[in-house]
Amino acid sequence: MILVYTESEEGKIKKIALEAVSYAKGIADQMGTSVTAVSINANDISELGKYGASKVLQVSNDKLNKFNGEAYADVIAQAAKTEDAKVIVVTSSANSKFLAPALAVNLEAGYVPNVTALPESTSPFKVKSNVFTNKAFATTEIKTDRKIIGLGKNSYGLKENETSATAEAFSPNLDAHDFDMEIISVDKATDKVTIADAEIVVSGGRGLKGPENWGMIEDLAKTLGAATACSKPVSDMGWRPHSEHVGQTGKPVASNLYIAIGISGAIQHLAGINASKVKVVINNDPEAPFFKAADYGIVGDAFEIVPKLTEKLKEFKAQNA
Amino acid sequence: MKILVCISHVPDTTSKINFTDSDTKFDTNGVQFVINPNDEFGLTRAMWFKEKQGATVHVVNVGGPETEPTLRKALAIGADEAIRVNTAATDGFSVAKQLASIAKEGGYDLVIGGRESIDYNGGMVPGMLAKLIGANFVNTCIGLEVEGDKATVIREIDGGKETLKTSLPLVIGGQKGLVEESDLRIPNMRGIMQARTKPLNVKEPVASNAETNTVSFEKPAPKGAVKLVDTVDELVNLLHNEAKVI
């Protein structure tokens, strides 16, 4: 049996969770078994069956309304033991990466994060993952009886596989140690697309000359429903918050489309965004290294091109709405 | 307060990545090794605790003798003592097990690791270590204050941040934000001289087993050439019809 942890936010199952279910179903088919999903305080689990889950363990517990690494890892470990899961699939979200190590210790399971494809073989169990911040892939054998896979975002995609899922209430045993941490405050912009969830990311670099020029980046992002990001120098100079810094020492980006504006393309930046499917660069320097890493490029003045691009996209959206 | 900072010895961020021995080993030829950037932010924060709150700071690395210059650099930055566990770092779990033994033996109140190492990007060692020693754990940590045995920790979450209260012993997976880039310290001559005489203790590993084994590496396939366009109309057209991303 393959267990998949299906993340939700405010009761709503996240898209990365559906990708994880699709992937779990892929492994289940390889191993001739089925997929059980475990969800914590999700309201509507009907979509999980659509991507291949045949059973859903539903946890409803008010104490688990906010993410809690220790307790969530405990819930998943208990579900894995109850169901005797051999493979546990989580995502590569910040929360999955928080809880997976504890889960691995609890289940004495080998854990490989940033996995990019279905196992090359399931006996021995070998999977491919991203290492060296997208500069290479590793094929790793997991030798333990139980295995944990952290699926990289946007690497497997959504695959529909209509299965009739049965829901079952699941009540894990939680102890005091699960609640040794108290959340004092959460500071989160609710009106903005996050880099983690974004399908499209619009990113600005030093070529924009100053923080006062970010309006056009935000306009373009808004038009595309995209998240905004920036290069390391921009966050180091305080033009934009650290949370927007993408690259090797910042956040990784694995979006469908990454638009780099006024970013020269240092090797560390390129590594961090390389998992994105399609890369567009707008830069006035035709020698900028980013042009070697991009799929599409425009050589020219960002201050002229970006507003034009935003206008054109608005027209395009209006026509295709 | 006794602080243990876990230092990963990693290739510099500008390194070209190549493999040898039929693509089974990382090619260290011509590669410059540094303190893992995420660990360096943590080490610098530890220096603050040393200077403002009188903390003792030890650094630890699991690796062969070739990693000692990286530990000496941490000593030159200001750590009091270094420990090297004399075994190759094979997988995340076996490293966490070595560190857990050091952490237990030394009775540390706070263990600072990095969110991930920039080589294998496992991001699992601090979380596993915390679980192995029964300490509290906060990952993607961008702010840390300690008073007595209570800690206030800021954690980066998708799209924002969260402030938590917890107690020691505590393990964190740190990153930029713990201190700013401009707070990072370049060792001065005095620090480098002092580092030469500070203790660097070599410990033999405890028994542990690797749960995973990397069998081979490969590099991504070379990318096709960029398609340069002259107008935004052309770009929008290609993104829609060819790339199909809008």
Structure explained in plain terms:
Chain A: This is Electron transfer flavoprotein subunit alpha. Chain A: InterPro entries: DHS-like_NAD/FAD-binding_dom, ETF_a/b_N, ETF_a/FixB, ETF_asu_C, Rossmann-like_a/b/a_fold. The complex is a heterodimer of chains A (321) and B (246). Chain A has 321 residues and is α/β, with parallel strands linked by helices. Chain A folds into 2 domains: 2-179, Rossmann fold (3-Layer(aba) Sandwich); 200-320, Rossmann fold (3-Layer(aba) Sandwich). Chain A contains 9 helices and 18 strands. Chain A has helices at 15-31, 46-50, 69-83, 94-107, 215-224, 232-236, 267-273, 290-293, 302-320, and strands at 2-6, 8-9, 12-13, 35-40, 55-59, 87-90, 110-115, 121-122, 125-131, 136-142, 147-151, 166-169, 182-188, 200-204, 227-230, 257-261, 278-283, 296-299. In chain A, the strands form 4 sheets. A 7-stranded parallel beta sheet of chain A has the order 7-11-6-1-4-5-12, with helices on both faces. Chain A has a 5-stranded parallel beta sheet with strand order 15-14-16-17-18. In chain A, strands 8-9-10 form a 3-stranded antiparallel beta sheet, with helices on one face. The longest helix of chain A has 19 residues, at 302-320. The radius of gyration of chain A is 21 Å and the shape is globular. The model of chain A has no long low-confidence stretch (mean pLDDT 96). Chain B has a single domain (2-218), classed as 3-Layer(aba) Sandwich (Rossmann fold). Chain B has helices at 37-53, 68-77, 92-106, 125-133, 189-197, 232-241; strands spanning 2-6, 9-11, 19-20, 25-26, 33-35, 56-62, 81-85, 110-114, 136-147, 150-157, 160-167, 170-174, 200-203, 212-218, 227-228. Helices cover 28% and strands 32% of the residues of chain B. With 246 residues, chain B is of the alpha/beta class. Chain B contains 6 helices and 15 strands. In chain B, α2 (68-77) links the parallel β6 (56-62) and β7 (81-85). The chains are: A alpha/beta (321), B alpha/beta (246). At the A-B interface, α3, α4, β7, β9 and β10 of A face α3, α4, β9, β10 and β11 of B. β10 (136-142) of chain A pairs antiparallel with β14 (212-218) of chain B.
